[in-house]
Specification:
By secondary structure, this protein is of the alpha/beta class. It contains 13 helices and 11 strands. β6 and β7 form a beta hairpin. The protein is globular. InterPro entries: ATPase_NBD, GppA/Ppx_hydrolase, Ppx_GppA_N.
Length: about 300
């Protein structure tokens, strides 16, 4: 079985094509193709509430390229989901309809709660009986989920994201509301561990030079990496640290969001699994198609 997932975010757009195999009852998801294109739709939307004509043209070209790859790989099923930037754009639905009519690619604009639910599907392997705060930071929004004894007890999406923070588009009241939400739902709970997802925390984790098989990073280490990044100019982060241009500017504001959530939760440790929205989409697609008679791969 071959499946494809497209995540249309505020800072970048990702395509992953996966083959699903079965071996003695074990299900394996093997990545066949992964592409990330730095089309920053959030920069338009958070300024003007619209996707510009220039980025609209680029977006449509990218969707054509992704549709070609989906067809070339003879994918059995796919999902394309758009998050914060597209859902807040005044012309987002219009663009989605144009892509559907001209390319034949169906895009779903999802809300923050569904976005969080989809990411959660890929997280269950990291959840046990203890308490956890899951923090997913995107370009336009941050999704928070709180777990206790393998049950999700609270969830909320906030208009706090790395591109918004970069553009100074986050009111103080929104920052405060995120802190209040965390404090109200965690309260006097036993020491809580955070789980961080998103491209920026993955890069921060990578920059920390973790030991082999280590899956977490300490609060103090995140602060240390943040200060290290701030010691370089934007150009130096690209040329000396080899960061992508669309990562080099947002990684610092993103680190501040993760740190704010951890501080509010009084947490000193963050697990960083290599999962995201695309992995949750794969879970949905597999569940939908697992009992169908699909050609072998």
């Amino acid at each position: 079985m071959r499946l494809a997932a497209v995540d249309i975010g505020s800072n970048a757009i990702r395509l992953q094509i996966t083959t699903v195999t079965h071996n003695e009852g074990e299900i394996n998801f093997k990545k066949l193709e992964y592409l990330r294109f730095p089309l920053r739709l959030g920069m338009d939307v958070f300024h003007t509430r619209r996707i510009s004509d220039k980025n609209k043209r680029k977006f449509i070209k990218l969707m054509k390229a992704f549709k070609l790859l989906i067809d070339l790989y003879e994918v059995d099923d796919y999902m394309v989901c758009a998050t914060s930037a597209m859902r807040e754009s005044e012309n987002g639905k219009e663009i989605v309809e144009e892509v559907k009519e001209d390319i034949g690619l169906k895009i779903q604009i999802i809300d923050g709660n569904l976005e969080a639910e989809l990411i959660n599907l890929a997280l269950w392997a990291h959840i046990d009986e203890k308490s956890y705060l899951h923090v997913d930071v995107g370009g336009g929004s941050t999704e928070l989920n709180i777990y206790s004894k393998k049950q999700k007890i609270a969830s909320k999406s906030f208009k706090i994201g790395s591109v918004r923070a970069l553009e100074d588009k986050i009111p103080l009241s929104v920052w405060k509301s995120m802190g209040v939400f965390i404090e109200e739902h965690i309260g006097k709970r036993e020491k809580i561990t955070c789980i961080g997802t998103g491209g920026n925390i993955s890069k921060i984790f990578e920059l920390s030079n973790p030991r082999k098989n280590k899956t977490f990073i300490q609060l103090d280490k995140i602060k240390e990496i943040q200060e290290y990044l701030e010691s370089f100019s934007y150009e130096e982060r690209i040329n000396k640290l080899n960061l992508n241009p669309d990562r080099a500017d947002v990684i610092i504001p993103a680190s501040k969001i993760y740190l704010a959530a951890m501080t509010a939760a009084n947490s000193t440790k963050m697990i960083v699994p290599d999962v995201g929205l695309k992995d949750g989409l794969m879970q949905v697609l597999y569940k939908k198609n697992k009992n169908k008679k699909i050609k072998s791969t």
